[in-house]
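Request: Could I get any protein with tokenized structure?
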Amino acid sequence: MADDVGSRTNAKSMSIIVTKGTLDWAYPPFILSTTAAAMGVDVSMFFTFYGLPLLKKKLDLQISPLGKPDMAMPMMGMHMKMPNLLAALPGVNAASTTMMKNLIKKKGVASIEDLRDAAVESEVRMIGCQMTLDLFEFDRKDMIEGIEIGGAATYMETAINSEINLFI
């Protein structure tokens, strides 16, 4: 008997810790959260440390190939990897970011802003870490509307009651 997605019992809740805020690391938590929400799963996202800036109203996401030897970009009909030494040169992050944003646009992939808006519309619970807000001296007024601010206990309370817990 074929397994049908509609016949599966979905988990009732999922929590995601979002710890990274680069362009490439922003995609997994937003794609997974919006997909789960569309499948009827209650989703909570806890944004801490470098993931917290993903809740800022104005995003300026970058990508760095430094330390990512597996990062291969489609160029000139092949996949080219950038040596770490080259990635350390000035301007490489900006060039890599431009290349990735152009590829995202060319392939019709939703922007992080669009995915974040979809998460808000899907009633994904987004919690910004109070300690990180204080530590990095972020201002609450620079964050998007509709988020909560909480600490580790807020996350733990959610995680303990979630069937799925992800660390991204």
